[in-house]
Amino acid sequence: MLDFIYYPVSFILWCWHKVFGFVFGADNAITWLLAIIFLTFTVRGIMFKPFVNQVRSMKKMQEFAPELKKIQKKYANDRQRQAMEMQKLQKEHGVNPLGSCLPMLLQIPVFIGLNWVLRAFSIQPADGSPKTENYFFDQAGVESYVHAKLFGVNIGDAIHNATMLGGQGGGWHWHVAPVAIPLMILAAILTHLTARHSAQRQNLNPESITPQTQMMQRLTMYIFPLGVLVFGAFFPIGLLVYWLANNGWTLMQQRLVYTRIDKEEAQKKAEAAEKRNSLAPRPGAKPKPGQKPVQQKKADDETAAGDGKAAGQNKPSSKAGSPHRFPQQGQRPQNGSAQKRKKPAQGGKNSGQKGSGQKRR
């Protein structure tokens, strides 16, 4: 039913087995383990671009996380409206929440396919005849895998061969534990370090941390590594090597991608600062006629905007639309805008008449 997954996984494994078979020999366990490791690297290399998009998408979500919190608080009692507003905000910022989950979702079919392909090497036909093929591998390839041993342990064995997972000869095989347990511990440690590195990156922006985010961080940092220690007993040696290689690649990839993105952001900030400085006059240089320095121009704009706002608030209403209204007869002038009455000048016409009248008397 899942042959569309099994055949591509088997083909990649077959190619790398042929490559390393020329160096170490086709029947060597090192050849098979390196083939599994480079199968992991091949798949992760194909998913490198989606991973970079995932990191950029997560960073954008962190930038407008405060706006998401406002929407959640505003529509706390209306889940439908809250979801609509959040989708609208994500669309405006060009963020797809599913994009951050795509690399992880793509790894699940690979894990399932490799688990089945490796276990299928040991599955015998119903009639008891020798197994002659396993997808892209012929009978020689099947026998080579079945007889390949690492420190005396077959790489297809697990501590517990669960028949429900495709294992043959169910039960506990404690002779596998000395090889499987160290691999399980290393895989759990790398799982914890990978999750911890990702959590430290998210914690750089405290405003983006939500209770759901904190819960997911604890889940990936502690529960997942514990799950590797528990369920690793059901994985064959080859699958544990895949898990170890996958987590090692993820940790290295995170460091490289995060460092690259940080350098890009620092370069953009430096270019923006250089552009601002280039617009400002040099120290000691006079601005061109009619041109103000950038900082002074910005301050003048802010002052003018503030004055305009204050003038708009204090401006008296006018029915006729005239900027100056004189008070009507019997009405006091408003806001101290009364005109000063001119006093009669001394020595004027009136004063002369008055003086002459007094003289005549």
UniProtKB/TrEMBL annotation:
Cellular location(s): Cell membrane; Membrane
InterPro entries tied to this protein: YidC/ALB3/OXA1/COX18, YidC/Oxa/ALB_C, YidC_ALB_C
Lipid bilayer topology: Multi-pass membrane protein
Keyword rRNA processing tagged: no
Biased amino acid composition, Low complexity: 280-296
Superkingdom of the source species: Bacteria
Keywords carried by this UniProt record: Cell membrane, Chaperone, Membrane, Protein transport, Transmembrane, Transmembrane helix, Transport
Annotated region (Disordered), positions in chain: 268-361
Compositionally biased region (Polar residues): 328-338
Record text on subunit structure and interactions: Interacts with the Sec translocase complex via SecD. Specifically interacts with transmembrane segments of nascent integral membrane proteins during membrane integration.
PANTHER family found in the cross-reference section: CYTOCHROME C OXIDASE ASSEMBLY PROTEIN COX18, MITOCHONDRIAL, OXA1
NCBIfam families: PRK03449.1 (NF002899), yidC_oxa1_cterm (TIGR03592)
Function: Required for the insertion and/or proper folding and/or complex formation of integral membrane proteins into the membrane. Involved in integration of membrane proteins that insert both dependently and independently of the Sec translocase complex, as well as at least some lipoproteins. Aids folding of multispanning membrane proteins.
Protein name listed in UniProt: Membrane protein insertase YidC
Gene symbol of the encoding locus: yidC
